[in-house]
Write a structure and sequence with these properties.
Length: 332
Amino acid sequence: MIDAIDRQIVHAMQVDGRAPFSRVAAVLGVSEQTVARRWRRLRADGVVRVLGLTTPEATEPSWHIRVRVQPAAAGAVADALARRPDVSWVSLTAGGAEITCSTKPRTPRQRDALLLDRLPRTVQVIDLTAFSVLHAYVGGPYEWTGFEDPLTDEQIAALTPEQPRTASPPLALDPEDELLLAALATDGRLSYAELAGVTGWSESRVARRVDALRAAGTLYFDLEIASELLGHPVSALLWLGVAPADIAHVGESLAREPETAFTAVVTGPVNLMVAVTCRDTAHLYRFLTDRVGALPVRTLETSTVLRRVKQAGSLMDGPRLTDPEPPPVRGR
C-alpha cells in the first residue's frame, strides 16, 4: 500500500533523481534507513525508476509520431516499436486503431530508417503523421506533480540541485560518452563506482563528466512514474492549434499545470502537444474545460490512452514499469 511518505519520497526523487537518501530523509523528517527501504520497495514494485537522459538539444531533433494501423495489428506494431531503443512513450489510443510514440534518433540515418522506410513499408500501417519537436518543456516546474500530498516549496528548494553560478557553454557529446549515457538511461541512480565499472573510467573521471554534462544542461535526470499505481490511471494526449503569437504563452501555462506530464511545441497541422495524467475522467473533463478552456486555443483534439506499452525507457507490464536490460560494458 502506497502511503503519504512513499509519495513524498517519489516527489523528492522527481526534484533530484540522484539525491542521496540522507538528504531526502532530512527534508522529510524520517530516517535514512526508512527512505532507502521504501525506495527499494517502490523500485521493486515497478512504481518508479530514475533515468539519465539527454536534452533534445543535445541530439538530433525529437519526433512525435501518430500511426494509424489496422486494429487487429495494433498490439504487435506497438510492441515492435517499443523494442526499439530510439523509441519511447509508446501508447495505444483512439479506440486501439492508433499508436502514438516518440523517437529521439542519434543520427539522420536512424531517423530516416524509421520514418521513411520501416514504418511506411509495414503493411498494417494505414498512414502516419510525424511532428518534429521545436521546443520541449522538461524538468523543474514542468514535471507532473499531481501528488495528493506534494512537498512544500521549502522542501523542494532544499532538494533542488545547486545551479552553476555562471552559465556553462554548450557541451557537445563525445563518442566516449555513449557507454556512460547508456548506463544512466537504464538506471540514473547508479553510483560513480558502478558507472566506472561500465565505462572503464576512474570514479573521479565519471563524476567530473556527469557534473559537466549536467551543468551544461546536456544531461538531466527524469523520474519515470507508474501513475496508475499512484491513483492516477487516466492519461490523454492533447493536440492543440493556437495562433503563433500565443504559442509561448499557452505552452508555458499548460506545462506548469500539475496534471501535465509533457508539453512540446511541434510542427505539423497543430503546434502544441500536451500529455496529461488525471485521477479519473471527471478530473480530465475539468482540466479541459477550466485550464485549457481559459487559454486562447483555436482547436483541440483529445486522445485518451488505452494502454501504455512503453514509457521513457521502461516497458510496461500492465500498470508497472519493468526493469530494462543491463547496460553494456566497455570491452564486451
